[in-house]
Amino acid sequence: MTHTLLTRCPVCSDTLTITKLQCNHCNTVIENEFELPKFHLLSKEQLQFIETFLVCRGNIKEVEKELGISYPTVRGKLSDIVQALGHDSNDKTTMDERKIVGMLERGEITADEAIKMLKE
After folding, report:
1. 101: number of Cβ within 10 Å
2. What predicted TM-score, i.e. pTM, was given to this entire model?
3. The pLDDT value given to residue 19
4. Is the separation of the CB atoms in 72 and 100 below 8 Å?
5. 94 falls in which pLDDT band (50, 70, 90)?
6. Which end is more exposed in the chain, N or C (fewer Cβ atoms within 10 Å of the end residue's Cβ)?
7. CB atoms within 10 A of CB 103
8. Is the predicted pLDDT of residue 3 greater than 80, yes or no?
């Protein structure tokens, strides 16, 4: 019986490390400290979003329709995933996007204004 790979400690939520691999055919065991692939560090929701994004061939309008979410929300989810994969998301573009989404959420700008600002 196989189980889904755990990537977070159930006690403290820190990242787990793989320390043992075993062949079920010949019983070879390899013990060491192995890194998890980056995508295993993403949440189930983030992986589902990536799958939808890929099925939609990266077309944000299609992702909006498929998931029933707005353009700024799609962009925000993409930025969160980029950051979760360990890439720098503190660049000016990401900060500007978050600022625009915040303004939209507070009702300071309309959705059309936010979309225009994000496309610039």
Report:
1. 20
2. 0.58
3. 92
4. yes
5. low
6. N
7. 15
8. no
